């Protein structure tokens, strides 16, 4: 039986996350790329820039007000923070209502948009066509805390380290190999966007201290949780196993996961569950690839849900 394919446009496709999405869309049975935009690569062949992509598509560079006329069923905004609303307004002004998935932080605090962290918010989806994709650290933090929410005696404290692809392609200290060499660079040690985001969506205060390291991709978050009563390690492990039973993109491990093992993989890993002697403090480690489960793969889960196909379509499991 012929599958009716939906068309998808990626705005900001030169970036790291845009390239990952191009690869996922290219292997999708029900999607076809309508356009991929980049001002810098305008006119160039996509296959010259995205390893693994084969096809004739070239980057284009429509202005935001020209986006509605491009005519895609699904639009992914993979732009830096603060750039999404002009695009969204252009669709509204043109009376066009495609599925819009925003990878930036711009709509993560807007209740009119569905916040798509499927393993935690799938049950809240009401057919929304405006989907805000969670932040990479915020995903790892929420997955590590959610199963213990009811036991917390104090705000969880999260120590995070990301590869420098998390800082995007706009040059900064955080993606400068010279500054990162032999270094672990702390930044935004209070009030990081993902601290606010995780706090909002978990419904409890979270404290987060991010760092960036000299490797390219993958992040690890070590979360310290003070509990209101003593627990046994096997009960903590059982809670996580139960919470994520059947989830293809969240693996619960006994031991603490290593970030080196998650680069290029589509799932998140959670493990460690080190317990203090009094049983009232547990340390949980979560890892994921910031460009995949932290961005493009999660976006693909959300797109799949929005178009009514298997949530894992095109995602290598
Ligand atoms: N990197 C990561 O690990 C994660 C990123 N995200 C979010 O996803 C989004 C994209 O991230 P990432 O791929 O890393 O970003 P990049 O910096 O790698 O890419 C940004 C893209 O936006 C375009 N762009 C840059 N500046 C502007 C501008 N002023 N106006 C219009 N287009 C612009 C660039 O193309 P061109 O300049 O050629 O037009 C490029 O295609 C960001 O909002 C980021 O916060 C979310 C989770 C994880
Ligand atoms: C290493 C690094 O800089 N990481 C980014 C997080 C990546 C990200 O994409 O976050 P948003 O989607 O919320 O912008 C940061 O800390 O801002």
Structure commentary:
With 317 residues, this protein is an alpha/beta fold. Helices cover 24% and strands 22% of the residues. A hairpin with a 5-residue loop joins strand 12 (268-275) and strand 13. Helix 1 packs across helix 8 (292-307) and helix 4 packs parallel to helix 6 (193-202). The longest helix has 16 residues, at 292-307. The chain is globular, with a radius of gyration of 20 Å. Keywords: Amino-acid biosynthesis, Arginine biosynthesis, Cytoplasm, NADP, Oxidoreductase.
Distinctive features:
317 residues; alpha/beta; Rossmann fold; Dihydrodipicolinate Reductase, domain 2; 2 domains; seven-stranded mixed β-sheet; six-stranded parallel β-sheet; 24% helix; globular; binds NADPH dihydro-nicotinamide-adenine-dinucleotide phosphate; binds N-acetyl-L-glutamyl 5-phosphate
Q: Approximately how much beta-strand content do the residues carry?
A: 15-25%
- Level-1 CATH class name of the largest domain: Alpha Beta
Largest sheet features: 7 strands, mixed
Average residue-wise pLDDT: 97
Return Rg in Å. Answer: 20 Å
- Spatial order of the strands forming the largest sheet: 8-9-7-10-13-12-11
CATH topology of the largest domain: Dihydrodipicolinate Reductase, domain 2
How many domains, in number, for the residues?
2
Q: Please name the CATH architecture of the largest domain.
A: 2-Layer Sandwich
The CATH superfamily of the largest domain bears the name Dihydrodipicolinate Reductase, domain 2
Cα-to-Cα separation, first versus last residue:
25 Å
The dominant shape is globular
The arrangement of helices and strands along the chain is EHEEHEEHEHEHEHEEHEEEH
Number of strands: 13
Can you list the ligands bound to this structure? NADPH dihydro-nicotinamide-adenine-dinucleotide phosphate, N-acetyl-L-glutamyl 5-phosphate
Structural class: alpha/beta
Portion in helices: 10-25%
Weakly predicted, low-confidence segments: none
Helix run count: 8
Oligomeric state of this protein? single chain
Family: Belongs to the NAGSA dehydrogenase family. Type 1 subfamily.
Main location: cytoplasm
Pfam families: Semialdhyde_dh, Semialdhyde_dhC_1
EC number: 1.2.1.38
């Amino acid at each position: 039986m012929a599958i009716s394919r939906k068309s998808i446009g990626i705005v900001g496709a030169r970036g790291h996350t845009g390239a990952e999405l191009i690869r996922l869309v290219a292997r999708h049975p029900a999607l076809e790329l309508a356009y991929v935009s980049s001002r810098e690569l305008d006119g160039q062949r996509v296959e010259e820039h995205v390893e693994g992509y084969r096809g004739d598509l070239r980057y284009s560079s429509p202005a935001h007000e020209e986006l509605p006329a491009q005519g895609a069923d699904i639009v992914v905004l993979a732009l830096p923070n603060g750039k999404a609303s002009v695009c969204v307004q252009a669709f509204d002004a043109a009376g066009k209502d495609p599925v819009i998935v925003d990878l930036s932080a711009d709509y993560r605090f807007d209740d009119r948009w569905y916040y798509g962290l499927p393993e935690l918010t799938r049950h809240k989806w009401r057919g929304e066509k405006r989907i805000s994709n969670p932040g990479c650290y915020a995903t790892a933090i929420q997955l590590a805390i959610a199963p213990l929410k009811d036991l917390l005696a104090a705000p969880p404290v999260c120590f995070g380290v990301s590869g420098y692809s998390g800082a995007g392609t706009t040059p900064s200290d955080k993606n400068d190999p010279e500054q990162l060499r032999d270094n672990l660079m702390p930044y935004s040690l209070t009030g990081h966007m993902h601290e606010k985001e995780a706090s909002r969506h978990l419904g409890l205060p979270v404290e987060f201290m991010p760092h960036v390291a000299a490797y390219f991709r993958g992040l690890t978050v070590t979360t310290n949780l003070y509990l209101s009563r003593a627990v046994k390690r096997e009960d903590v492990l059982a809670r996580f196993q139960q919470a994520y039973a059947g989830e293809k993109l969240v693996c619960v491990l006994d031991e603490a996961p290593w970030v080196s093992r998650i680069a290029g993989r589509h799932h998140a890993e959670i493990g460690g569950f080190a317990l203090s002697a009094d049983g009232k403090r547990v340390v949980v480690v979560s890892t994921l690839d910031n460009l995949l489960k932290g961005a493009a793969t999660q976006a693909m889960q959300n797109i799949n849900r929005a178009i009514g196909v298997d949530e894992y379509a095109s995602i290598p499991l």
